[in-house]
Amino acid sequence: MRAIYATDLSAASEAAIASETCLECLGRIGVETIHLVTVIPSNVHAGMPGMNFSKRREQALGRYQNVMADAGFETDTNVVRGMPHRRINGIAEAEKADMTIIGSRGQSPLENRVIGSTARNLARTTVVPLLVNRVERETADPDVLREHLFQQILYATDFSANAERAFDAFSYLRHATQEATLVHVESPKDSGATDGDPSDRLDALASTLATWDIDTTVEVRQGDPGEEILAVEERVTPTMILVGSRGRSRMRRLLLGSVSEDIVARASGNVYLVPPSRTA
């Protein structure tokens, strides 16, 4: 597998890259090659006061590349200028990457707003599965919040085609997964929108995971999907939320897309967001 590792050279990015446990988890699911990508926003110029981009890039990327090489990954570096999420997506397509990885402090106020906006924009537009690796907030020397990226997964589904595609990610995530919680949220507007009993459908998915020795529980909840998924995360504290980025129909694309975007922005821990197929 090939991964794009997007970094803005911040403390948040460095914490995610420097975590030996996180890198070990990536290796366990089959990642062999990592392309380190730094995007300088178009509105930022080297001549601005206090901006020594050249020296900072060389030092940081060299340090990151050494860490990943020591962990056994093949690596290269890409330094580009432009709109961060667009350039990251472009490189992901050009390299035929299997996932994009970005470190983020999550619900930050004014600080780190560039990486925060990039994570949100990638959540809307990513062309490959997006791993948002959450790090601590409000500290100058942050650490990752949950090192074992895929050990305990909360999978949220509306039984759409894209949700099924997200579930298919277990085919490789399972090599690092021990437990899973499967959740479906029904809202009043969704009454009768799915075929079959949701509990039965979740049980069928749980049976698949059982063949891979993953301990699984299922839960059907009522209410707002985003709020209910985050409530389950708070209760079970998974290491990862796994969710598709689009829902049941084109008519509801923006609404259901906003649920996954909301989860990326507000989740306490890591999020693995799976978009529709590139050929869809």
Short description:
With 280 residues, this protein is an alpha/beta fold.
Textual characterization of the structure:
It comes from Haloarcula salinisoli. Pfam families: Usp. This is Universal stress protein. Residues 3-132, 150-275 form the UspA domain. Belongs to the universal stress protein A family. This protein is α/β, with parallel strands linked by helices. The protein folds into two domains: 2-134, Rossmann fold (3-Layer(aba) Sandwich); 152-274, HUPs (Rossmann fold). The protein is 39% helix and 23% strand. It has ten helices and ten strands. It has helices spanning 11-18, 20-28, 53-70, 84-94, 113-125, 161-168, 170-173, 198-210, 225-236, 253-266, and strands at 2-6, 33-41, 74-82, 99-104, 130-134, 152-156, 179-186, 215-222, 240-244, 270-274. It has a ten-stranded mixed beta sheet with strand order 3-2-1-4-5-10-9-6-7-8, with helices on both faces. Helix 4 (84-94) crosses helix 5, helix 5 packs antiparallel against helix 10 and helix 9 (225-236) packs parallel to helix 10 (253-266). The longest helix has 18 residues, at 53-70. The two termini are 21 Å apart.
Name the descriptors:
10 helices, Universal stress protein, Universal_stress_UspA, globular, UspA, alpha/beta, Rossmann-like_a/b/a_fold, Rossmann fold, 39% helix, ten-stranded mixed β-sheet, 280 residues, 10 strands
